[in-house]
Amino acid sequence: MSEALLEVRHLKKYFPAGRNALLKAVDDVSFCINKGETLGLVGESGCGKTTVGRTLIRIYEPDGGKILFDGQDISRVNRTQAKELTRRMQMVFQDPYASLNPFYTVGEVIAEGFSIHGMYPNKKERQERICELLEMVGLHRDHAGRFPHEFSGGQRQRVGIARALALDPSFLICDEPISALDVSIQAQVVNMLIRFQEQMNLTYLFIAHDLSMVRHISDKTAVMYCGTMVEYGKTQEVYDHAAHPYTRGLLSAVPVADPDYEASHSRIPMDGEVPSPVNPAPGCRFAGRCHHATDQCRGETPVLKDVGGGHLAACHLL
After folding, report:
1. What pLDDT was estimated at residue 269?
2. HSE on the CB side for 310, CA within 13 Å?
3. pLDDT (0 to 100) of residue 50
4. By the 8 A CB rule, do 225 and 43 touch?
C-alpha cells in the first residue's frame, strides 16, 4: 500500500475584500498525494489552484484545515520549522522570468538556497554542484555566469527547475510550469519532470490548464471550481467517467487530433459567468452555469461523495 506524503484536510484560505467581506479563494479543499505520485490540479483561471499551492508551501498562511506533510502537521510552524520545510518542499513558478532575480546570475540564483541552509560551504564544491544542476536540466555549465534576461523562456524555466531541485526536495509544487512556454518546449519540460520523478522518487502537485498534459503526467486528478473541489480521483477514472457536470464540460472542450472525432463531437455548453468568491451564497457554485441544476442545487451546498473506487464528486444529481 502506498504511503501518503501530503494530506490536505479541509484547507481554507480567505482574503479580506472590503468591509465585512471575505474572498474565499480556497474553501474546504481536501486531497492526498502518495509518495512518488503526481496529482494534477485543474480548473479555470481564478478557481484557487495557485492559492492552494502557495498555501501548502506557506507563502500564504492557511485560515483553516490541516496540512500533513510526511505525517507532520505543518499548518502552524515556527520559523525554524518553516526553514527546514523548504528544504523538502519546493515550488516551480508559472512565470520563468518574474520568479528569477534579474540582478543575480543564474549560478547565484541556484546557490541562494545553499547559503540559506549552510550547504556546500566549500566554494569549489558549490560551483561544481551548480554546474551539475544546470547540466541535469539541459543547460551548459558556462551558463552559470549569465543573467536571466540572456535566456529564452524555456531556458529560464529550466533554471527555475534547477533551483527547485538544488536542495534535494521530496515534493515539488509545479504551478503551471509550461503555460508560458512554446508548445514545442512544453513536452520537453514535462518529460524532463517525469524523468526526474523516476530518478529521484519525487512527488508532484502539478497545477495546469492543459487537461491533455495533466492526463499525460498525473496519477490522480483534482478539479476545482470557484475555490471548491468538485471532483477527485484516479486520472483514468476521472477522464473516462467524469461525474461532475463541470468536469464533463471541461473535457468536452479538449481538442483531439482526430478529424472524425471532432466532426461528430459536440462541446457541452457552460454559459454564464463564474460567480464571485466574495461571500458566496449557499448552494452549488456551478448551479448558475449548469443546465441540470435544481432548487436543491441552488440552496444546498453539495459535499464530495464516493461514486466508486475512491472517485469523488460534489453534485446533488449523482
Report:
1. 76
2. 9
3. 95
4. yes
Q: How far apart are CA 290 and CA 160, in angstroms?
A: 39
Give which of 221, 276, 210, 212 is closest to 243, Cα–Cα: 221
Question: Does the structure show a pLDDT above 90 at 256?
Answer: no
Phi-psi domain of 68 (left: phi exceeds 0; alpha: psi -120 through 50; beta: other):
beta
Task: Output the nine-digit C-alpha cell for 192.
Answer: 524532463
What would the 3-class secondary structure string for 6-43 be?
EEEEEEEEEEECCCCCEEEEEEEEEEEEECCCEEEEEC
Amino acid (one-letter) located at 313: A
Name residues whose C-beta falls within 8 Å of residue 136's C-beta, 6 or more positions apart in sequence: 162, 165, 196
In terms of Cα–Cα distance, which of 20, 9, 22 is closest to 56? 9
Q: Is the pLDDT of residue 75 over 90?
A: no
CB 170 within 8 A of CB 5: yes
Whole-number Å distance between alpha carbons of 106 and 97: 12
Phi, psi of 5 (to 5 degrees): -95, -40
Continuous segment of H or E residues that includes residue 198: helix 183-200
For residue 30, what is its C-alpha cell? 481536501
- C-beta of residue 93 within 8 angstroms of C-beta of residue 175: yes
Torsion of the alpha carbons at 242, 244, 247 and 251, rounded to the nearest 10: 40
Axis-axis angle for helices 106-117, 123-136 (nearest 10): 120
245 φ, ψ (degrees, to nearest 5): -55, -35
The beta-strand segments (E) located in the chain are: 4-16, 22-34, 38-42, 64-69, 72-73, 89-92, 171-175, 203-208, 220-225, 228-234, 305-306, 312-313
> Is residue 242 a contact partner of residue 231, using CB atoms and an 8 Å limit?
yes
Give the pLDDT confidence of 123-167 residue by residue, as tens digits. Answer: 999 999 999 999 999 999 999 999 999 999 889 999 999 999 999
Q: What is the length of the chain?
A: 318
Instruction: Tell which wins on pLDDT, 192 or 96.
Output: 192
